[in-house]
């Protein structure tokens, strides 16, 4: 069910959003355990393998690798940060619903958030390839498509007019960007406290 919708969103997003909306919301446990927990594993595991086994080279210089002891806590923290980020954005959507005249549940907001962020999770596989410019462009394309899914999906999935959907989607995008900045700030604070990666 989820894989069909996931690939349908890549090929014909508007029709797929309508099918997802008519299908109804699965349970919170089903959404988180079956979908979010597995999808969120892709970027941390890929980056762990890429940074410890393959290494990274900036502008064709020396290859730099993370030590396994350093990479494991970073990968675990990244995994939980992704899960918290999904839940945070979904909760903010749920909180904003009444403002935009929508009566949906937290489960529906969570499934919408998971579907919308799927291209970014799948782009996490590129972390296996230690080519910085390639990784940048793949992640940039995934983010652009996720934003497209957000703006095209909210009016259909939430069953609201396009104009209100645009404002709602812009609000959700702002929340997502604020969450990203918050994660970056926490990372800088942790590195400043001495919890920084060690390279080999």
TrEMBL record:
Sequence intervals crossing the membrane: 31-51, 71-94, 106-126, 132-154, 166-191
Domain Yip1: 7-181
Subcellular location: Membrane
Keywords for the protein's UniProt record, in alphabetical order: Membrane, Transmembrane, Transmembrane helix
Membrane topology of this protein: Multi-pass membrane protein
First and last residue of the signal peptide: none
Record has Metal-binding as a keyword: no
Name assigned to this protein: Yip1 family protein
């Amino acid at each position: 069910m989820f894989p069909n919708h996931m690939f349908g969103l890549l090929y014909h997003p508007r029709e797929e959003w309508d099918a997802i909306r008519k299908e109804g919301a699965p349970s919170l446990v089903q959404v988180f355990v079956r979908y979010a927990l597995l999808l969120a594993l892709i970027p941390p595991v890929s980056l762990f393998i890429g940074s410890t086994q393959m290494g990274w080279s900036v502008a064709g210089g020396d290859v730099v690798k993370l030590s396994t002891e350093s990479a494991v806590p970073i990968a675990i923290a990244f995994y939980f940060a992704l899960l918290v980020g999904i839940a945070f954005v979904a909760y903010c959507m749920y909180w904003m619903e009444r403002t935009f005249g929508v009566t949906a549940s937290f489960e529906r907001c969570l499934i919408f958030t998971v579907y919308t962020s799927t291209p970014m999770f799948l782009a996490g596989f590129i972390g296996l390839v230690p080519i910085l410019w390639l990784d940048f462009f793949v992640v940039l394309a995934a983010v652009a498509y996720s934003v497209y899914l957000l703006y095209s999906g909210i009016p259909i999935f939430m069953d609201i007019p396009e104009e209100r959907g645009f404002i709602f989607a812009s609000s959700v995008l702002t929340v997502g960007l604020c969450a990203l900045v918050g994660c970056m700030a926490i990372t800088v604070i942790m590195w400043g406290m001495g919890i920084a990666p060690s390279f080999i």
